[in-house]
Specification:
Length: 445
């Protein structure tokens, strides 16, 4: 029998969640208007009760999987994983998967904390963090991993990974770690070395730290998200947050490479220009038609607005005090992906295996909305590029993560290109890694 206090708390949460779900606004703009280099930006809506529309996580029914675009096929590279969030492909073809989730933290108390906990559970993010990295090996090259081994464990909400020479780097939520690596090993047993602390105060709102090594192997770039939605906890909690850090591998010394990025997630170098690009989750609770999440090249020393402004110099009226001098320096991103799509994974095409329409551009894993009606995201898209810049509307690559009833059968997170030129997608609700190939070659190298 439930404890009366626990039951009362549960009833309160359900009641409040139902009340909040009945409030809020609905999108009026067509999705096409919220994408591209010049999205439509209506006046912000400051709502006492924000839109709350969360797809209940159910997992995939037996035998079902995402739906690929015409000309593509999908198969399960690996199933039975435990909240797989991020991917890294080693030079020998082994695939590393960070099984990870929100770290233990102080969080938010009171009714707000109860609602956040309810929302996370509903979205499939309420499970404990496995705190490990597993290795998937497809030894016979048939497009399905035959073996899964424990590559690293005992971590603290690991996310980003990078191999530089014979050193393997992991971005835990609170530290950048270095491990010795030998080609072909299925497990690292030796303890790692901390080379830098990463911001992780008790609230730790955006906990996941993405990671990218420079092409010359001399520097590491770390994406550090903000500690709030729009600075509502006080800017004293935002020290070192909402930025991309550049860390010197040799010394461990870090500096701000770019700032004002609310939650910079997947990073990758664009093959033609060599420029660093990132996908960013923008702020919530200004209405279903604001603010577009985006894909942008990262300009050294640039400020992208958060928390004071968005899409350049559009002021967020909730942020006080404002900083006009800093806002005057804010630059707009390169390309809007749509409102509240929650882009996390980013990978540029490698090789020429995929059909022509997917030969030049970026794949993006969109985790999906909670603050928009109707839903947005919950799919993998492709942004075509030309001359090193986005060129055209996003193209759906994998859909079907939302069922006809609006339930989340899966949620895409990290994306990566495997050694053969196929696309891999981590699904943290479906507990799988999907593999996308040309339709005529479903599961061959």
């Amino acid at each position: 029998m439930d404890h009366p206090r626990t039951s009362a708390k549960a009833v309160t949460v359900v009641f409040l969640a139902a009340f909040l779900a009945a409030c809020g606004d609905s999108a009026e703009l067509p999705e096409e208007a919220t994408r591209g280099p010049d999205p439509t930006l209506p006046a912000p809506k400051e709502m006492l009760i924000p839109t709350l529309k969360i797809a209940r996580a159910t997992g995939w029914p037996q035998g079902e999987m995402p739906k690929p675009a015409n000309g593509l096929a999908v198969n399960a590279f690996a199933t039975g994983l435990d909240h797989p969030r991020w991917l890294y492909v080693l030079p020998n073809g082994d695939v590393l998967v960070a099984e990870t989730n929100t770290p233990k933290q102080a969080g938010v108390g009171g009714v707000t904390g109860l609602i956040i906990a309810w929302a996370m559970n509903r979205a499939g993010a309420g499970v404990p963090s496995p705190n490990r990295i597993v290795l998937l090996r497809d030894a016979d090259g048939d497009g399905v991993a035959e073996t899964k081994s424990m590559f690293l464990e005992g971590l603290n909400s690991p996310f980003g990974m990078a191999l530089v020479g014979d050193k393997f780097y992991v971005a835990d939520t609170d530290a950048l770690l270095r491990f010795d690596y030998q080609d072909g090993v299925a497990e690292i047993k030796a303890a790692g070395t901390k080379i830098a602390d990463l911001p992780a105060s008790p609230i730790n709102y955006h906990w996941a730290k993405s990671l990218m090594a420079s092409e010359d192997g001399a520097r590491l770039y770390v994406g550090v998200g903000s500690n709030s939605n729009a600075g509502e906890n006080g800017l004293e909690w935002e020290k070192g947050r909402a930025q991309i850090l550049e860390i010197d591998i040799a010394t461990g010394e870090g500096r701000s490479f770019a700032t004002g990025l609310r939650n910079p997630a997947g990073m990758a170098f664009e093959p033609q220009s060599g420029a660093l690009w990132v996908v960013v989750n923008e702020r919530d609770e200004l209405g279903s038609d604001l603010v577009p999440d985006y894909l942008t090249s990262v300009k050294e020393g640039a400020f992208y607005g958060w928390p004071y402004s968005y899409w350049g110099q559009h002021i967020d009226p909730r942020v006080e005090p404002q900083n006009p001098e800093l806002v005057a320096k804010a630059i707009p991103p390169d390309y809007a992906l749509g409102n509240h799509v929650a882009p996390l994974g980013l990978a540029f095409v490698q090789g020429d295996r995929l059909p022509d329409q997917f030969r030049n551009g970026a794949f993006i894993g969109e985790h999906g909305s909670w603050n928009r009606d109707p839903f947005s995201g919950y799919k993998v898209v492709f942004v075509p590029f030309s001359d090193g810049q986005p060129a055209g509307q996003p193209v759906d690559v994998l859909t079907g993560f939302l069922s006809d009833r609006g339930e989340a059968q899966g949620r895409p997170v990290g994306v990566a290109m495997d050694r053969s030129g196929a696309l891999l997608v981590a699904d943290d609700v479906g507990n799988a890694v999907w593999r996308v190939t040309p339709a005529s070659h479903t599961a061959t190298p």
